[in-house]
Structures are given as C-alpha cells and as structure tokens.
Model the fold of this input.
Amino acid sequence: MSGVSDDYLVYPHRAYGMDQALYPWRPGPARALAPWPQAKALGACVIVLIEHHSLTPRGRPFKHPGAMQTPYPDLRHYTTRDYGNRVGVYRILDALRAAGIQATFPVNACVLERYPALIEAIAADGHEFAAYGLSSDDIHWSGLESGEEARFVNETRAAFERAGLAARAWMSPARQQSFETPHLIRAAGFDICLDWEQDSTPIVMATRTGGLWALPVMNELDDRKLLIDQRQSEEDWARQILTARDALIEEAGRSGGQTLAFTLTPYVIGQPFRIAALRQVLTGLGGHDAVWTTTASRLIAALT
Done:
C-alpha cells in the first residue's frame, strides 16, 4: 500500500480473547452461577434514568443522545425533558409501587440540588440511588485533559455524600467511558458499574484498586432507543422485554441464574399514551414466579 508504513497492520493486542484486560473472555455456556434467592431463575433490575439536560449543551466530544438538537433555544425538546422530571417520572413511580417493584435510579449529581422534591419521592418508596455523573453535559471520554475525568467522578461522589445518599452503583452519562473510567470510579468507592452489556449475568472487572462488578444493562431494550430512535410501537417494546424474560428463564435451566436489566426514560415511557405498556412490563416481571425483581446493589449482594 503506497504511503503506509510497515507497522500499519501490526496489532499488538491480537491474541486469544479480547483487546482489553478488565475481564477474561468466557463463552456463555462455560459459566456456572447458582440460582438467585429462593431458586429464582431470573434477576430483573429496572433502571430509571434521572437526567438534567442543559438548554445550551457544550456537546463535547458529542451531545448526549437526549440533548437539545435544533437551533437554540430548543424549547420544544427542552420542555419535553422537563415534563419527564416533573410529571412522567411520577407515573413511573406509581407503576412501580403498584407492581411492588423497587428500582435503581441513576441520578445526575446536579439533579440532587435542582429537584429535591423528586429525590425525596424516590427515597420515600425505598428505591436505590446510583450515581449518574455530574450531568448529561459532562461526558466521559479519552480526550479529556489529565485530571478532568477524576474531577467529574470525585465531584459526583461528593455531591451524593452532601445529599446523604450512599451510592454503590455508577452509570456514566450517555453510558460513555474513557479507558480510565472503571479505574476512577472504583477508586472513588463505586463497586458496581451499569455501563456495560457484555453478558447476561454480572461479572467482576479487574481495576487498579480492586474488583468492579459489571451488571449488564441491555441497551437493546432501552425505551428511548426502541420507541424514539427505532420508532417501534409500545406493544412491540413490551413484548420484547417479556420475550427476553422467557428466553432467559429457559436458559437459566442450563447455565444458572440470569439477569435482565433495562433502562427507562421518564420523558419517553412516562407519557400518558405509553405508561400502560410499562404497567404491562412491570406486571409481567413482578408477577412471575421465576423472576426476582430487585435493585442493582441487592442483585450484586446475592453474589458476594
């Protein structure tokens, strides 16, 4: 090839397994996990995203998928997201309460002071809080200046401590990481990560400061991705989650307890014309004899 150096095709990580060392490669049939408590086949974790979207996002290195898109001021999309945090999320809370399900709520640190009434409502129902970075405008990526990402993580931890909230789990804004993110969040005291989706059961990732549980969250079932980006119907979305439930329960008979975790977005599924689909999903999980509906930290605690 003209103009290309000889080392262009040299790839130092070409070897058995994968090109990262956080966890070893392992085929699904090779793992062996005991069933969940009470011999449940499936551990289901509902994850409700609580985000603050700036009216004028910086977009570095890219805009959060839920960020404002049209020329500023993008009030139409901004107020839709505001609707989610003042109306839609309360419909989700009602649906969770009716189904007897406690969920995990990743919360942007800036939300803790912006919407205290919402934080109080989530806490009142006994849901779990997870850290969701500083804001949807503070994206983690490998182009950040040295020390900036550590500041993001440490300021997030400090904000939760000021609010009196002990969060074990971490989710990065837009679920975007740098190569340093797992090491930084573990060093800050988070031992559960919700960014990855590499398996159908939790695994331990090796960081410089200790083990970090990766609880796989299925982006393929995310309400925003399927209902907004892919324009599927609410009926299709609900059916896909319950189909995944049935398939994972069947697989549990061959390879131990399985995990089903997926995200909900208040300004998407909290709309009045969509909330019935969520009620159907929650009933299908909470009312199934083989399913253990739980929070991220309780699910991980069952493995330790």
Q: What stands out?
A: The first strand starts at residue 42 and ends at 48. The chain has a mean pLDDT of 90.
